[in-house]
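hiii, so i know i said id send this last week but things got crazy w the move. better late than never?? heres the sequnce for the chain we talked about at the cafe, plus the structure i predicted for it. fair warning i was half asleep when i ran it
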Amino acid sequence: MKFKDPELEKGSFLSISLLILSGELIFLLPYVLARVFRPTFLEVFNLTNLELGSLFSIYGTVAILSYLYGGVISDKFQPKILIAISLFFTSFGGIVLSTYPSYWMLQILWGYWGFTTVFLFWGAMIKATRVWGGSKNQGEAFGLLDGGRGLVAASMGTLGVLVFSLFLTNDIEIASLVERKNAFKYVILFSSFIVFLTGILVILYMESSREGVVNKSSSLFPNIRSVIKIQSVWLIMFIIIAAYVGYKVTDIYSLYASDVMRFDNLEAANIGSLQLYLRPLVCLLIALFADKKSYIHFIIIGFIVMLVGALIFSLGIVQVNMNYIFFFSLIVVATGTYAIRALYFSLMQEGRIPLVLTGTAVGVISVVGYTPDIFASPMIGYLLDTYPGIIGHQYVFAILVLFSIVGLWASIKFSKLVTSFN
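okay and structure toks below
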């Protein structure tokens, strides 16, 4: 089965802006709030690190089941419709979360979000971004997407901290659990409203995909077979799985600040929020320079940087009263992680994956690439609960060292493959 990629120019600024907004806000409720407010989140929902990790694992399990066929669907329908529907249904879950349901209900809720944020959304977002970038601006397109998403996440983190502090009737140190729960409820409701509003904006203002990028064929398995025969697909899988473990580790930055650096909950939340600003900075720089050379070269550098930062943390060098070393090491790990994330889907162009099969390829790649959604969070939670203090964190970063090496190997292999094409 052969497909010809149409030559496309870049889309409008408004469309990429809406892709950026929807691309991050869809994960605000299931992920960003817990990342920025992790110590507070554990307190108000009465969860251990392992229980929170298990919620993410349930989310990941449902998501893995949703990636493949969801990707195929995104090749057959207009992305803007699929994206908007996903945003609406995701926002409804926030109303349930604001009632502080039981752990059993939280498990159902995270499973629900694993479906609403992936099945109709993920393949549609990646395909719309690839179409927006045209045939010559994939680095810019995906750099802007992930950088913009990072800016949205950081801004929402900052807004969340502001809302939380505004509704606290007492100082964070003396506020009771009831007062913290009441304040955090407004953070959840505010987040739900923003997600719903974005869905409306997508329906009204996002461009529809142009002719030639929607696959009219109803053949599911032939398309999947075509994708899995492409060697670059498998290498991108390994690159993403390694990079995504790095991204999952960003979930514990605020907890490291609390457990090891002895910051209070509000200071730790600010660390969780401020480190998110590194993501847009790194990714927007990538967007400016990535199209000037092969994307895979930037990814190789990203894995080397991530490996160095992970080694610093894993050796236990970063301890209390060493704030400057903490900030430096955090910046190093985050810079490597975000540089890789900004570009790994842009490799589809270098890997010669047909545009018309983008959704199917994203689905196949994601089934393996995002398996850290299943195993990483419970594993991290177990290590942090079993080995309190700096030891547990060292073990987490030691695992990141191993995955950084795997990602570096796959990236070098991909670089050799691209060279063979030319």
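btw The chain has one domain: 13-205+227-421. thought thatd interest u
miss u guys!!
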